[in-house]
Every structure is written in structure tokens, then in C-alpha cells.
Amino acid sequence: MKEYIEIIRPSIVFMSALGVIIGAIISGAKDFFILIAALSAFLIAGAGVVVNDIYDYETDKINFPNRPLPSKRMKKSIAAIYSVILFFIGISLSYLINIYCFLLAILNSFLEIIYARNLKRIALLGNALDSWFVASTFIFGYFSSLRTAFIIKESFASIILVSLLAFLSNMGREIFGDIDDIKGDKKARMKTLPIITSERFAKYVASIFIILAVILSPLPFLLGFFSFVYLLIVFVADILFLYSLFKDPKTNQKITKIAMIIALLAFLFGSIF
């Protein structure tokens, strides 16, 4: 069972679930549908990670040889069946919430497969799609708060802004990740930004996205969406994001992951207190 848990990368899919919960809370949801939506996102994100590992089998032999598939602790055929089961349960749960969550779940499930098979290998487009997955968790949470026809709540603007901040910061993190994975990606003939340009240029572009996210981060407070608590917590995340820009790509990935978790907490506590 260890391989089945390891291959979905719990820390990543947990952040997806947390994003949904935060989006739902910001939107005023208070019922059990929050948990159903979070579990749905958790399973769909997990399925996407498994599919990604299937298509990244050759590159992971170089970049991440200890993962379940390249280490041969799990067969690709078993991983494929596992991903189908996760997708099915995740989408089925979204159907129990409402049509909006259901449609977004189907869309993201389809995009997860297209991303892993084709788009991940295209510079910036693959990064943008992965960042959409991160940003859409808040939108999924917003959708889960709707009980009748689609309406634009007062929280909609804050959801869009939070999604934008998540998108920008993840774009920077993903490009730094491409720099870190350049050895295996070159062998697989992928066309990521650092491969088609240079590592230096890719780092410059990644830094712009992260700096832009940091510059825009006070907006939820300045626009009155979140309390002063948000500003205090997000300041810590901003410091870590900026600090990561001076580190090597591998260290950058670790620091920005922590920064994103802190930013999620800022969104959560800023909307509650």
C-alpha cells in the first residue's frame, strides 16, 4: 500500500484539497459539501499526478529514480488502472455537489491527461496549465458553495484575486522546477523554457512571476477582502518567495512549497478573522 500513497504525492494533493476548503470558506460555505469537494479535488489531483508519472517514466529514471514507477515498485499498467479509479471516484463525488463542480471536475480531469501526454512538454503552456490546476481549486471551492443557479456572490472577486496570486506564484515555481529537471527533460526531448532558451533566461522569467505575485499580494487586504491577519501572514510567505529567488532551483522548490502553504494559511485566517 505504501506505493499507492507515495505515487499520488500526498503533500501536493493535500494542498489542492486545502485550496478547495479555503475557497469554500471564503465563499461562505458551512455544510458537509466542503469536505466532499475537498475529497473530490484530492482524488482528481492524485489521479493527475499518477498519469503524469506514467508519461514521465523515462525522465523520472534520471530526475527521480526512487519514485514508484522508475524504481519498478509499481507497474505502469497498475498505475493506469489506479488513476482511472481515482478519476472516477473524484468526478462522482463532484456530481453529488452540483453541476458546476461536476463540469469543472470533468474539465480538469481531461486537462490533466492532455497536460501529462502533450502540453507539459511545451514551454510556458505546460507551466500555465499546471498553474491553472492550482488556481482552479479556489474556484472549485466557490462552486461548492452554490446550492441553486449560478450566482455572483460578493466573495467572487476575492476568489478570482486569490486564484490569480496562486497562478502567478506557481508559474514561477514551475519554471524553476523545469530548470531543476533539465537533465532528464533534455533526454526526453522536451521543449521547456530553460531548454529552448537558457537556464539564465528561464530563471529571469520565473523570478518575474514570483515578484509580481509578491507585489500584488497586499491587494486582498487593501481591497477589504481579508483582515489585517492576512497581511501579517502573507508577509512571511512573501519573504520566503523572495528569498527563494537567490537559491538554486532544487532549494527554490523546497522554499516556495513552504511559502505557498503559508500563503494558503494567510487566505484562510485572513477570511475568518
Overview in brief:
It is built from 14 helices and no strands. With 273 residues, it is mainly α.
List the helices and strands and how they pair.
Blueprint: H1 2-6, H2 10-26, H3 33-55, H4 57-63, H5 76-97, H6 99-117, H7 125-144, H8 156-180, H9 182-187, H10 193-196, H11 199-216, H12 219-222, H13 228-244, H14 249-272
Could you describe the 3D structure shown?
Helix 3 runs antiparallel to helix 5, helix 5 (76-97) runs antiparallel to helix 6 and helix 8 (156-180) packs antiparallel against helix 11. The protein is globular and about 50 Å long. The chain has 14 helices and no strands. The N and C termini lie far apart (40 Å). The protein has one domain (2-272): Tetracycline Repressor, domain 2, CATH 1.10.357.140. With 273 residues, it is an all-alpha fold. The mean pLDDT is 94.
Number of helices: 14
Topology pattern, helix = H, strand = E? HHHHHHHHHHHHHH
- CATH architectural group: Orthogonal Bundle
Major sheet: none
* Low-confidence spans: none
Which percent band covers the strand fraction? Answer: under 5%
CATH class: Mainly Alpha
- Radius of gyration, rounded? 18 Å
Classify the helix fraction into a percent range: over 70%
Which key phrases capture this entry?
273 residues; Tetracycline Repressor, domain 2
